[in-house]
Amino acid sequence: MTLRLLAPIPAELEPAELLARLGPVLPPFDPEIEAFGARLSARLFADPAARAFPDLASLAFWLRPAATATLRAHVAGLGEHRAPRGLVLHVAPANVETLFVYSWWLSAVVGNRAIVRLSERAGARTALLLRLISETLAEPSFTRLAAATAMVSYPRDDATSRALSLAADLRVIWGGDATVAAFRALPLRPEATELIFPDRRSLAVIMAADTLALDETGRDDLAERFYRDCFWFDQKACSSPLLLAWVGDAPSCERAAADFWPRLAGWAQRQGYAVAPATQMAKLTEAARLVLDGVATTVTRHGAAVLVARGGVAPPRPETCGGGLFQETILAGLDEVPRLIDPRIQTLTQFGLSDDARATLAGWLSGKGAERLVPVGRALDFCHIWDGKDLLAAMTRSRHE
Amino acid sequence: MIDDPILALPPYGHDQARKEAWLADGLRRLTLHHATACPAYGAWVRAMFPPPERTERMAELPWLPVGVFKSHLLMSVPDSTIVRTLTSSGTSGQAVSRIPLDAATASRQSRALSAIMQTLLGPRRLPMLIVDHDGAIAGGGPLSARGAGILGMMPFGRHHTFLLDQSMAVRRDALAAFLASHGGAPFLIFGMTAMVWTHLRSAGADLSNAILIHGGGWKTLAEQGVDNASFKAELRRRTGLTRVVNFYGMAEQVGSIFLEGEDGFLHPAAAADVIIRDPDSLRECPIGTPGLIQVVSLLPLSYPGHSILTEDWGVVTAMDAGAWKGKSFTVLGRVKQAELRGCSDVAGGGT
Predict the structure, then answer these.
(1) Which ipTM did the prediction report?
(2) What is the DSSP string of B295-326?
(3) Cβ–Cβ of A176/B281 closer than 8 Å?
């Protein structure tokens, strides 16, 4: 079997050939690596095609020297002698197209060699990113990083995945329960380790009184930030909220909801967010199922994009069609939030929680799920701690004497 | 409700305005019946729609997305009265719809189908060639929509002959014997569109006296670039077949089929209709504007399938034109699948 090397230089080759070609590890935060991040960031900001995608701008921010300095400080905090783990195999998800760069960059910045397996179904963002990464790696100042990097694609093939897995010191699997299960059947070497990111889902908690205290601009701004959390990846990113819980007395919650959803729908329309007819059908079907199962009791449409199924206090359902179907519930107080949480909940985006309230809530949620508590608008911000796991710690090893 | 006088009307030739009046009335009563008899359905009606008893227009009455029949067995009669459960023909690995029928609903379905077929075939029962194998109607277990279609059509024929054997090969001897006995006078051929295309086109037979009735969707043929016109032209060229009638129907509303008229478009019978909806606003589309197809039927009593929003895309082409009056429409295919982004590798599971 052959696999397609997509970056740094396109080629068709056998897994063994690829592994033989791959260059050695680099020291963590080698100046060559840090300079590459700055260079790729600048290219992303400058490229007219990249500017059309707001999520690529987020990525560009994340590659800047200032962001890399944050990562360096974090690794320094892990202990004195951190070394790269070795060869990291990344299995990227099909559809959050920027994720492969985040995953690869975290491993590269601490000096690892990397093979990044991309989905064959990758789209326009992936092609654009591969072009910019290849062009940058081809510059003479990045030859060592280029030698240590391989972005590949191949059809589903256990033999290839097995060969790459056996070569890896760390395997990182994104892409849902099914992919995780399939890769877990393929062994790693005894001393190798694994980071897995299975299906997770997320929700939002908004204090009704705090939104009602906002002026028009503030309310629009909240809706716009919520839009970014949900619609950039068609509500299919695992950190995009599927459920919105209003906290407060019932009349305030009703007023806040009646004000919020039309603003969100209006902003989605002004952004030109289009919903395919098949997605509209999937949303209506899932909304009907929520009602038939007694999970929701009212279903309300707001514009073309937003469908809201109001129901009782329970975690969001695992089946989700995305595309703007929201479960909604009303909580009398924050102490009811734990009833929305199960171990599959990843991110809780919030608005209106004071520092004290956040600390109290974090205590209630400890060990239950929702390891990530961020403000509305920050759901998609990637972080080196994800799903409660410290990626930089996993991508390095401690040397001690 | 069981002896609805509308079911005794001729299937075609009614002005849309009059038809909508009795459909709105009948559908409203059916909605209230099912909302009471099937509490889960009642919850959906209350969750999504204004109260049916205060809804005047047919297009404003509740509907149910067709996909729920794949996840939920919805029933408006006691379990003990179910005489047959239909299943839709899903491709392997996909969930199938399950439709519970009681005797009254099954009887309404066959009476409605009979009235529609007599428009086409007259009162005589014609010799009937079935483009399938006899295993499709074998007993035991739920009946597939394909089997139900054949069983539903068999009363309109006689001397039934199955064209295929269990391995889906043409039974040439049986075909020759059938044509020797019946090929010189009008006879009936029935089958699924894709199977007719695969097996009948190349059967090497003279079918010039036949009337072909076929349905079940164009997906496979559309992928090969075959449309209704080329389907007809090719069959005519290779078998001499001139009378070819397509129909549109679904397991969720058996008996309420939409027949192709002289104009080449599909027509709802008296107890049924289509409403085309804009997928974003869900409002009814004007004539000529394509959208989601909603199908309504006065037949279903045992399950809340009297008003279904399908995943098919279609367009009303004319209203009250031609002898059949009412709406004429065409099916443009399944709604387009969007590629949603997300973390989860939805088509994944491999390495």
Answers:
(1) 0.92
(2) EEES--SSSS-SEEEEEEEEEEEEES-STT-S
(3) no
